[in-house]
Every structure is written in C-alpha cells, then in structure tokens.
Specification:
By secondary structure, the protein is of the alpha/beta class. Helices cover 45% and strands 14% of the residues. Belongs to the beta-class carbonic anhydrase family.
C-alpha cells in the first residue's frame, strides 16, 4: 500500500518554526555593527585622529582618510561571516564593480564571461520576445532529475532551451521515496508537478557514475557521511543488482545498477500521492533515460503503471529506444 497520510507527510515535510525574535534582533544588531552609521547617528567606536583639514563631502568620498584602508579589511572579514552583510555590499556596489587583480590567463571566469556575452548576442538578443515571455512565466513540459556529474548536463545532451525543462541535479540522480521526507529533489518535484503541471518526468542516469560506485562499494558498517546517507536511498537497486549480476565484475555490476537505480527512482516517484494521482489520470508520464558518454548513446523508456498488467504486475516498460 502506497503512503497516503497527508497529515503525517505535512509533519515530516513541515518547515521549521521561525527563529526566536531575540535571534533576529541579534542578527540586526550584528548587521548594524558591520555597516557605517549614517550622519547624525551615535557610534560607540573610537574615532580616527583628526586630520589637518576636513575635506568637502565629495572629496571625502573619493579620498579615504589615514588608517581607513585597514578598517575596510576588517569590515570585509566581518561581512564574510554574515550573509546580510555580503548582500548589502552587492546592493551598495552594484554600479561600482571592484575587479580583483588576477592575470587573465589565471582567471577561470574570463572564459565564462566570453560565453555569456556570446549567449547574450546570439541567443538572448535574437530571441528577445521569447525571453520577455519567459520573464513573466515558465511553462516547461519536462521535469528532469539528473546527476550532478559535470560530464552529464541534460541541457547540453538533450538540447533543452530555456523554459523547456525544470531540472534538479543530485548525486546519482536519485529520487527518494515519499516517506523519506523533505529534500531538494522532493521540493522540486512538488513544484514541477503541482504548480508548473509538467507533463513528463524524466530521470536521467549515466555511465561510470561515481554515486553508483559509492553505493555498490558501500560497507554497512562503514562510517556514516553525507554521501553514504544519500546514496543509501538506492539500496533496493543495489540488492537487485547483487541478485541479478553478483557473478560479474565490479564495473559490470555498477553498469547494471546505473539502470536499476533509474527504475527504482521511477517507482519511488509513484510513492508521492500527487504524482500517482496524475499518472492514473493520464496527465503525467514517467520516463527513464541512460546516457553512455563512452560511446555517446542515449537509451529512453517509459514506465507503464496500472492494475492488471501481464503477470499480475502493476509496472511495465514501453516505448524503449536507443539513440546512437
């Protein structure tokens, strides 16, 4: 029986209560300490020694007083520990960019800047009306769950254009079951299915997945960590792989599990009541995809979910194809 207790789910997925007022007051007080007070406000800090001449307001902004540079360094250090302070810097200096003195040959952002400007010229400007429409709303037909692996970008592989696919990426492209509770993946699914009303959910796995290797090599008695806790979601796929391909080498077991975990995630999708409801209504389709970057092929299939299928199962695969 699939979990249906919305009340229990609400308790599991409920947001934490707001921080106590005294914490907010403390943060506000810290923010006030980070930022220079406006003229007329009292300050408990020691003042700098007087200079021979008081510059005019315009000149004072252009020329820092003696010792002021050292105070700025301390200020930046404090702001780095306070996100509100950092945001204030962005707001105050949005028209006055401070460039770091980094050689162009060593700056990793120079290439990104060139690509962005090329995108703006060749894509954004030429499709301006489309981007104006996207600025008002998004109506994607796909929700994509893909791996965080840098070699597997669904936009690059499948050619999604802006507004076509609502995407979430995580280690090993796993979908936790509904009873697992809140996660960035379940939150993205909820928004995509209930608010954007996407018509398709596509789970994309890939070859030589480090997350699947971690799952397959995981020791039950090993020290817990973020990676182990996350990939443990795929334990059922690991058990199925051991049963079906336990006689094969580790690499082949991982390859088997890469596809097994996709199907496991597809079944986990059906544990979400609002996904199961829409699948039963025929307004949502669930798909699996497997990208092999060794030989650049892509396998795609669709999950069938209904009672009374052949063999008494509720699940089947249809529309399987390989793109090569």
């Amino acid at each position: 029986m699939l979990p249906r207790s919305l009340g229990s789910a609400a308790r599991r997925l409920g947001l934490a209560a707001a921080a106590p007022a005294r914490a907010c007051a403390s943060s506000a007080s810290a923010a006030r300490r980070l930022w220079p007070q406006s003229d007329g406000e009292e300050s408990g800090q020691d003042e700098l020694p007087p200079t021979p001449r008081t510059p005019e307001p315009e000149e004072r902004r252009r020329q820092p007083r003696r010792g002021e540079h050292r105070r700025d360094l301390s200020f930046v250090t404090k702001a780095s520990r306070d996100h509100s302070g950092l945001t204030r810097q962005l707001l105050d200096f949005q028209h006055d960019t401070i460039e770091e003195e980094v050689g162009a040959e060593h700056d990793p952002f120079m290439g990104l800047k060139a690509r962005f400007l090329d995108f703006k010229k060749r894509n954004y400007v030429e499709n301006f009306s489309n981007y104006q429409s996207l600025a008002e709303q998004q109506t994607p037909k796909f929700m994509v769950v893909a791996c965080a692996d840098s070699r597997v970008c669904p936009t690059g592989i499948l050619g999604f254009q802006p507004g076509e696919a609502f995407t979430v990426r995580n280690v090993a492209n796993l979908v936790p079951p509904y009873e697992h509770g809140g996660s960035e993946t379940s939150a993205a699914l909820e928004f995509a299915v209930n608010t954007l009303e996407v018509e398709n959910v596509l789970v994309v796995g890939h070859s030589r997945c480090g997350g699947i290797q971690a799952l397959m090599s995981m020791k039950d008695d090993s020290t817990s960590g973020f990676i182990k806790n996350w990939v443990s979601i795929g334990k059922s796929a690991r058990l199925s792989t051991k049963a079906a391909a336990g006689n094969l080498g580790f690499e082949m077991q991982c390859r088997h599990c890469e596809k097994e975990s996709i199907n496991s995630s597809l079944l986990n999708l059906l544990t979400y009541p609002w996904i199961e409801k829409r699948v039963n209504e025929g307004t949502l389709n669930l798909h699996g995809g497997y990208y092999n970057f060794i030989d650049c092929t892509f396998e795609k299939w669709t999950l069938v979910y209904r009672q009374g299928l052949e063999g008494g199962s509720k699940y089947a695969i249809k529309n399987r194809s390989t793109w090569s």
